[in-house]
Design a protein that fits this description.
- Keywords: Cell membrane, Membrane, Transmembrane, Transmembrane helix, Transport.
- It is a multi-pass membrane protein.
- This is MFS transporter.
- It is found in: Cell membrane.
- The chain is mainly alpha-helical.
- Helix content is 80%, strand content 0%.
- The protein has 21 helices and no strands.
- It has helices at 4-9, 12-39, 41-44, 51-83, 85-104, 109-112, 115-145, 151-177, 181-186, 191-194, 197-208, 214-224, 230-236, 238-247, 252-269, 273-301, 303-327, 330-357, 365-381, 383-391, 397-417.
- The relative contact order is 0.16.
């Protein structure tokens, strides 16, 4: 089989745009929780704890969402590989939107006591369950519609959408964070969560119009569909699942940047909320342009050199960013933050959607990506609370930077051990001993 007919039958631009918009809406929901956890949840849901403990508990509640992601990966991965990518994408946007709106409706600790943080954690678990299938489903959809020589470029739109979701989440919080403290705590924090009702409507409309991928329809659904995709996945592709798990801890760079560093800057160093939120906005704007550029480069020279270079750059620049926060120098903060998250981290974000998906054949692709990434992301999800625990004050940033560098090193080892796949035909991806991958 060749790639030509499938690539032309598929609709790569439509799939990529749908992945972009869907991911932007999904991850708007996911990231407004992280912003709220860093800024106000310690006062609303954990007010009886001292300030540092309340912050730690709030950040831990952010990490709890990642606990549900491996569970969601097993279930939604199975559904996506057995019954189609489209079903997963419609379900995830619906669940994410509903659970996020409900967070904005929660009573506070002062109103119902311990039931408030318990309900908060329960809804965060539902968010995590939804996110488990979102990126793997969108990546599988765009990869299987894409021309073989531009798979990284088209799959990178999923992660560009994720960055757009972060921009929306941070931008919505800019006027909210500027409210007087009593109004922010009383009602202002709820507004970004209520706006998520739009996600349900827009997401369902967009994704209900998607076509199933030709790869799934022709190769999987009609002739080779696996009723239990997880069995061949762990029997034949366990090494690549493990490789993706280890490589995916690079996501800790994102969670430390967006959650821990925000909390450190505001709660420990005492910097103003609005300017530090603008660092995230501008970094994500730069990332929107950088991600497809890095992905296009990976289509030409290969996945591994771009991925490894990005990981190494993140290890170095995290030192610069956290140090700049400790100094309070806004010029250094903006320059290092944009360089870290907008430029260098985008090299890893632009590559992994194609690189991880290309490790697996179509029959187990969504399961392989979902299980591998979500276990790795679950580990990364607790990096803000781990960082808060090891940071220990204004000068503790260096321990957090060292922790991040260690995670980047793990990613580099995992990526370096993988086979290069940028020249492998789509129909041969994940198959053993193909000439281009040996």
């Amino acid at each position: 089989m060749t790639d030509g007919p499938r690539a032309t039958q598929g609709k790569p631009r439509k799939a990529a745009i749908a992945a972009w918009i869907g991911s932007a809406l999904e991850y708007y929901d996911f990231f407004i929780y992280g912003t709220a956890a860093a800024l106000v949840f310690n006062k609303i849901f954990f007010p009886d704890a001292d300030p540092s403990t309340g912050t730690l508990l709030a950040l831990a509640s952010f990490g709890v969402g990642y606990l549900a992601r491996p569970i969601g990966a097993f279930i939604l991965g199975h559904i996506g590989d057995a019954f189609g990518r489209k079903r997963v994408l419609v379900f995830t946007v619906l669940l994410m939107g509903i659970s996020t709106v409900l967070v904005g409706c929660l009573p506070t600790y002062d109103q119902i006591g311990l039931a408030a943080p318990a309900l908060l954690v329960a809804l965060r678990l539902l968010q995590g369950f939804s996110a488990a299938g979102e990126q793997a489903g969108a990546n599988s959809m765009s990869l299987e519609h894409a021309p073989a020589h531009r798979r990284a470029y088209f799959t990178s739109f999923t992660l560009s959408g994720t960055q757009a979701g972060q921009i929306l989440a941070t931008a919505v919080f800019l006027p909210v964070a500027a409210l007087p403290e009593d109004q922010l705590v009383a009602w202002g924090w709820r507004v970004p969560f209520w706006l998520s009702g739009i996600v349900v409507i827009v997401g369902l409309v967009i994704r209900s119009k998607l076509d199933e991928t030709p790869v799934f329809v022709e190769e999987v659904a009609e002739t080779k569909r696996e009723k239990t995709p997880l069995l061949p996945l762990f029997r034949d592709h366990w090494a690549d699942v493990l490789r993706v798990i280890v490589a995916s801890v690079i996501a800790a760079v994102s969670t430390i940047f967006t959650v821990y560093a925000l909390s450190y800057a505001v709660n420990t160093v005492g910097l103003a909320k609005t300017p530090i939120l603008w660092v995230g906005v501008l970094a994500n704007v730069v990332a929107l342009a950088a991600i497809p550029l890095w992905a296009g480069l990976a289509d030409r020279i290969g996945r591994k050199p771009v991925f490894i270079g990005g990981s190494a750059g993140c290890a170095v620049l995290m030192f610069a960013y956290l140090w700049s926060l400790s100094t309070g120098n806004w010029v250094l903060i903006f320059a290092s933050g944009i360089a870290l998250f907008g430029v260098v981290y985008s090299a890893t974000n632009g590559i992994w959607p194609a690189f991880y998906g290309e490790m697996f054949p179509a029959k187990v692709r969504l399961s392989g990506m979902a299980v591998g990434t979500q276990i790795g992301f679950a580990l990364a999800g607790f990096s803000p609370s781990i960082s808060e625990a090891i940071g220990g004050g204004r000068d503790g940033w260096i321990y957090v930077a060292l922790f991040t560098a260690g995670l980047c090193a793990l990613n580099i080892i995992a990526v370096a051990s993988a086979r290069e796949t940028h020249k492998v035909p789509t129909a041969e991806l994940g198959l053993p001993k193909t000439p281009a991958t040996v």
